[in-house]
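Pasting as-is:
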Amino acid sequence: MPKELVLQVSPEIAADAVLLQQYLSKQIKVGVSEIQHVSIVKRSIDARQKAIKINLKVLIYLQGEAFKESSIALPDYKNVAHAQEVIVVGAGPAGLFAALQLIELGLKPIVIERGKDVRGRRRDLKAINRDHVVNEDSNYCFGEGGAGTYSDGKLYTRSKKRGDVTRILELLVAFGATPDILVDAHPHIGTNKLPQIIQDIREKIIECGGQVLFETRVTDILIKNNEVQGVVTQKGDAIAANKIILATGHSARDIFELLDRNNILIEAKPFALGVRAEHPQSLIDRIQYSCDYRGEYLPPAPYSIVKQVGGRGMYSFCMCPGGVIAPCATSPGEVVTNGWSPSKRDQATANSGIVIELKLEDFAPFAKFGPLAGMEFQKSIEQKAWHLAGQTQRVPAQRMVDFTQNKVSSTIPTTSYVPGTTSVEMGQVFPGFLSQILREGFTEFGKSMKGYLTNEAILHAPESRTSSPVRIPRDGISLEHLQIKGLYPCGEGAGYAGGIISAAIDGEKCALKIAESLQ
């Protein structure tokens, strides 16, 4: 039996297999040559003290003990070419993992994606960044892999109660992700590596007899006697099925409008909204690691911060060490920001959404829109940002200290946001109560993280797509829509997930419930 050990070591030892083996040999009092293999089970950073340590949980195999290099294989997927068909609307994490689960259960997924395949999306992303042209069907939010493909691939989740997180991580590894995601406390794939993984998932779906239809937007859901019959696409084609997983993501406003127009029950949902703050990564390293220079053995430092300000939560969201800020509008006439990091997190800047919890009463000025009130509130801020930025994808920007002092920044340095910036007083972007909470909140952040409140930090507005402004209510047991039989609202867009892992888990759960109903 291997010996399990939980320990703290220096970053240098944790990064070097030989040094780690030498260290462990002293801990368990055996010669180095007696150690056959060391498996790292868990890894995290402890930066609470000036001398930073790495927490490790390891398994030590001595010579003569049974050890075999572990490998993770894909499930035994069936060929489902002639099986019962299930429509999956959306090829983000929820839709793709729902499709894989359906295949595993012997059902044929027909995945319908409004955007382009993962490679084709790149041209449209370039058009947003370079030419300020937004393709409503192919952008940072829409297309194969969904928003997660080009927004970092962070896999950390607190949603372990929702389902089997390890299963999702192992599937990602089997499709090509680094095995480190099974070990690290805050696993991350990287925007540069995700496209190939997403493409391999799609190819497996097709290989097993499933279908994936790109550049195919759903424009209607066929319903008879409160039961789904299929969907209609923008090409006028009808695709029949009496089971539909609706996994369209948090930005599919046309789907929310379609449901509301057809009197299919939806609800306004609170979400969070604010700015994306960018600091020099070296500054965040100094704050978090309490050192002048991070060194080669520590990763770029992240941060997480939460405050109660004016009776509301204000917190960091989707923090990207060594990352960049991206333009994430899904329609012309709006500006939206998000952030991502490459796998090495080697960019010069760190960015994070800094957002404030909204309440349903905040949407009162848009009450005439009923369950779409939150969406219209969100849209109004994005459109205002577009006008303030000269009706381009340039983003309203302000230095952080200047913002807290209600002062327009005389200069804005070049940031990682490629389309460029326009110096604006952020109070023009947000309603007065939000601006005031943000000002107070940044002052409080500066007290907790000495050096965080600085004019080296640039605020970009708005960070508005943190989660869906709409919930599509479903039965807690069957997961079917409360009103429409055979319709399974799923993932972030339906209001039941918040990130890649929880969306993937929800997709699998919906697929399982469909299989149960068919039995």
